[in-house]
Design brief:
96 residues, mainly alpha, 56% helix
Length: 96
Amino acid sequence: MNPLQEYPAIRQWCYRIMWINLLTLGATQAGYAVAEQASPGWLKVALGVLAYVSVATNYTADRNVTPTTPAGNAPAPRVIPGTILPDVNLTRKDTP
């Protein structure tokens, strides 16, 4: 079992650390790109490592999401990135 699944508080902090690191390194990469400078080697390595590690943390996050249900007993639809949900008419039938 993944140790992050056993300790939700630690898992939450791991997600925050990943988010801050990715945001910081991404902003640094964008800064180098805007300045038309070559990215340093350490930045390329750090982005590559964080991208690889984020696969495991994202998998753990996905496995620990509690599905919510909308009004009624129907389970919430699982939205797959890149797909379009069908149009649903949310107006009541008894309103004029």
